[in-house]
Specification:
Helix content is 34%, strand content 4%. By secondary structure, it is mainly α. A two-stranded antiparallel sheet has the order 1-2. InterPro entries: Ald_Oxase/Xan_DH_a/b_sf, Ald_Oxase/xanthine_DH-like, CO_DH_flav_C, CO_DH_flav_C_dom_sf, FAD-bd_PCMH-like_sf. This is CO dehydrogenase flavoprotein C-terminal domain-containing protein.
Length: 315
């Protein structure tokens, strides 16, 4: 999981979109998607499967794709045009039905963006088996265990290991908080805060989690605060620009759609970062003067040429 820089640039690129075996989808005995299935196809599949009890969880996956990936990203836009997540994570825990928050079987706790070899937080998974996530000491112990086994690598320009470890732990804690609230969704607002106060104070600020509390107690809070507990839904964005022109001279100054607009909005437009490096490719570096106003009397490029520079341009 995660995206990592190549140490050696490949000489050959192979388009896998036409390989039939990589576009197959199977649901028995488990759900398997081929590596060439698009995000749009995956979303549609997840929504259909979520109607079945066995795959009800796939609706959450589809909603997440819908939230973070716009249409061009889901279909054909190259990954280089989009920001990479520093750390991503996935959690699956089966809790007891008695509301105690006991983890009844080994959970799945996975992270991407830590290092190429790290996937499962195995020590933390084993630690949680048979324990209650509602217990402050258990949650503290799980975070300590996770802290010990998270050892992010560092390859520039990635974020520093300390920052990525903090993100991973925050994702784990946030998910446990959501799980904890779901298990206590019948509690009153005041009772819930009192029950969990010790856990919250030792881990983070109380207002970090207030949105989830609001979502469970809408009938008990002011109307002006209710939206704090709702998941924000981003509407479809659009824009329009108008011009004041003299129609008598059209088409001289007649407004027309931007020629590149459709290609850029659909993700079909190729940018320089989307093309692989070619043999002998040159890169430019912009160097500014350290003198605000002056005259150039001489330029000595020997040092720069010794570092591999092949030419210089002055403006």
């Amino acid at each position: 999981m995660g995206v990592y820089r190549r140490k050696v640039e490949p000489k050959i690129y192979i388009d896998i979109t036409g390989i039939k075996e990589l576009r197959t989808i199977s649901t028995e005995p488990t759900l398997v998607l081929g590596g060439s299935v698009s995000l749009t196809e995956a979303m549609e599949l997840f929504y259909d499967l979520s109607k079945e009890t066995q795959y009800a969880y796939t609706k959450v996956l589809a909603d997440h794709i819908d939230l973070i990936a716009n249409v061009p990203v889901r279909n054909i836009m190259p990954r280089a045009q989009n920001a990479h997540a520093y750390v991503n994570a996935g959690f699956m825990m089966k809790l007891s039905d008695d509301g105690t928050g006991k983890v009844v079987q080994k959970p799945n706790i996975v992270f991407g963006g830590i290092d190429p070899q790290f996937l499962h937080a195995i020590d933390t998974e084993n630690f949680l088996i048979g324990k209650s996530v509602l217990d402050e000491q258990v949650l503290q112990g799980a975070l300590s265990t996770l802290d010990a086994e998270l050892l992010p690598d560092y390859i520039s320009p990635d974020a520093v290991p300390e920052y990525r470890k903090g993100l991973a732990k925050a994702l784990f804690y946030k998910e446990n908080w959501r799980t904890l609230l779901k298990a206590q969704n019948s509690a009153t607002l005041s009772g819930l805060v009192q029950k969990l106060k010790g856990v919250i104070i030792n881990l983070t600020r109380l207002d970090f989690c207030i949105g989830f509390i609001l979502s469970l107690a809408k009938a008990k809070v002011k109307k002006s605060l209710i939206s704090g507990g709702d998941l924000l839904i981003r509407p479809l964005s659009s824009a329009k620009q108008t011009y004041d022109t003299d129609k008598s001279v059209w088409p001289l100054n007649q407004p027309v759609p931007k020629l590149e607009a459709l290609a850029q909005c659909s993700g079909e437009a190729a940018y320089i970062n989307d093309h692989p490096a070619i043999p002998g490719e040159l890169f430019g570096a912009f160097v500014v003067t350290t003198i605000g106003q002056g005259n150039i009397s001489n330029m000595d490029s020997k040092e720069a040429l010794g570092l591999g520079m092949v030419a210089q341009l002055t403006f």
